């Protein structure tokens, strides 16, 4: 599991975003649903940690015909 992202070039970032969009569409997951999931999870986690909302991400990733909701919630350093 990777906790910190390394620098990626724009081509790789764009490719990953396109894969995520396609996976979202294949799983009938709208942007609105993902936003609701993100909001609810953020509220739950913020009961325990200070979360960097601007850097948080929620998306569906698909690999080997299996889908997963990926949630990235960077927490403030003072919580670690």
From TrEMBL:
The lineage of its organism: Bacteria, Bacillati, Bacillota, Clostridia, Eubacteriales. Gene3D superfamilies: Cell division topological specificity factor MinE. Prevents the cell division inhibition by proteins MinC and MinD at internal division sites while permitting inhibition at polar sites. This ensures cell division at the proper site by restricting the formation of a division septum at the midpoint of the long axis of the cell. This is Cell division topological specificity factor. It comes from Alkalibaculum sporogenes. It comes from the Bacteria. Belongs to the MinE family. One of its GO terms (biological process) is cell division.
